[in-house]
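Sample pair:
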Amino acid sequence: FAMILPYIVAFYLMLSILEDTGYLPRLATLVDTFFHRLGMHGHGIISVFLGLGCNVPGALATRVLETKKQRFIAATLMSISVPCMAQIAMVFGVLGPFGARYIVMVFATLLAVYIVVGLILSRVIPGECPEIFLEIPPYRVPNLRVTASKTWMRVRGFIGEAIPYLFLGILLVNLLYTVGFLGWMATAFAPLMEVWLGLPAEATAALLVGFLRKDLAVGMLVPLGMTPVQLVIAVAMLSIYFPCVATFVVLLKELGARGMAAAVGVMVTTALIVGGLLRMVLIGF
């Protein structure tokens, strides 16, 4: 927590200030034209902003979108391309020592995936994308006490949610290692990991733990002795391939079993394609 807590506090403070000043509705209006190209109107930016703090409220924020098509696209894109602040902090911690360009590679990849997959889904999925209608409130000066209270409430909620998953993840990894399951999985997925993605087979364990906490999974990549380029590929894969368990449960309720199955198909397919392309571009054939 010493590594990620400053980023968490800074993000939630910024989000509270944006809310209290009345800027978020204006932001939704500004990006409305661009988001229409991705199959949703400007309210989709709200799920992106909330997802940067934690993907769970980001998934819940898709409820403000009127049509099933918009909700599916917003939830899927948020899950695969919007890392939570804890994961962002771990990305900075893991890749930062190698230089800023590797961090830029990860976020440039996620931005490209958000746009390309959004353009594809908006054309493949039938349905309408209605115009945005919202009231623009006047600008307000934030109340420092209210802003500080909201920030503390969100940070406390994050800590309360993260700690159980952190210990559960550590317990699960040790248990799977003890019974030999991680070794079996590494052997089974070795062709995919080593040939297609250019990663060591041992990185399979991090992908499994990513279902619990993606920030914890990113931290598990450090002892594997991978090159900076391999870390870029692995971190991008972790961001795209599957949501954490808390987000998965929320999306299952929001999208239904059929919608969630379709979203998972999009996530896994996108992760494999992007991981392979990154390996070809950054490592070679």
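The two ends are 38 Å apart (CA to CA).
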